[in-house]
């Protein structure tokens, strides 16, 4: 086992000790046996388990007290760790009761005493842990419910293997015993699977990644041990190694809790989460593997039909999830295209007037110059600054919008009207008849002359217009725009309406 070490921090001696304990101590019970050994060996076994349960409870209590914050995830973490603390206490109580019963019972006794407290205390602890997991808030990842349903369908298929029907003829008593078997064997297992799936698929786990991995290993080991028939725990060599597994899973729980306790308290929102999970597909694989095993071992029995039903449901849910994912992908692609169109609009259009901006105007000018002669009209509003100073910037903005509207009314649908910046506008006309250029300039000047009524305010409007005509073999976009700019400033300086 690799001893975990946080980056930039010295080795935790307690974690090292717990890890060495988990590596070295459990094999001793497998090598030397417990069930067939003397009372001291059995006592040592239960003392070790009791110590692990106490250590688990102490570390969990520390985590519960450190979980600060008042958001739903912080409250859920505190609730979870208090549930784990109580579960550790119940486990320790059940383990200690086993020791008491061994010393109070006959000289020849099994290692496991099956009375009420010894059985109910650990079961209540499992229920508390599962309750804490279920009450922890989940994230809002898309498809969460369907993914959890898929995992549960696969778990139910595997859980069928844990059911041991009671002996005897079917009847009321047999049915009651079967109900107890379902609740005590696969029932808690399935609820635990649901709780873990909800956390993993929800994307807001309260566990650190390394701690979660060790917890998962301990839970898988314990689930496998619970699936073994009770009579296998005894004097045989198999029973000795099963007891070794119990000690190892308990020690791993303590190691995982210590890993969780290192450093500052974990915050679920600080960890990036994937928008998808492979767990439903693992569940599908488990369902099919379970079906193959059951059919190969026992043929078509009641178990086989239950597993086949689970396979059908799991496969259907995965197919439905994929169909939903394809629909979502289509929606995302449409949203992407709409967003790209909006970004293009924002990149090439003036936000105030909706006209083309300088970038789009130059792009259109370059394209037009490569095909045919074009005419550029450059317009600058006269005395626009006094309008802002006298009437305010809001009125100035409305005047600019009105100017853009009037310029659009003077040109055709294939021409370009742009706001180059401030109070400067430009009009691009392709293939304009030379005899129409002066008239076009006069129309633009007339459209921007006189006064404008804006919200009850009369605003004066005047503009200087410069004109330049370009040909593909003589002009580039920058050269033509510069010529129009010079013509416009000549008009403005001379006080004339237009100059070519």
From TrEMBL:
Q: Which organism is it from?
A: Actinoplanes siamensis
Domain GGDEF, chain residue ranges per copy: 372-500
Signal peptide range in chain numbering: none
Membrane-spanning ranges: 15-37, 43-60, 80-104, 116-136, 148-168, 174-200, 212-228, 240-257, 278-299, 305-326
Alphabetical list of PROSITE patterns matching this protein: GGDEF (PS50887)
Q: What keywords are assigned to this protein?
A: Membrane, Transmembrane, Transmembrane helix
**Record-linked SMART domains:** GGDEF (SM00267)
The record's listing under SUPFAM superfamilies reads: Nucleotide cyclase
A matching Pfam family = GGDEF
Q: Does the keyword rRNA processing apply?
A: no
Q: Which Gene3D superfamilies match?
A: 3.30.70.270
State the taxonomy lineage: Bacteria, Bacillati, Actinomycetota, Actinomycetes, Micromonosporales
Provide the protein name.
GGDEF domain-containing protein
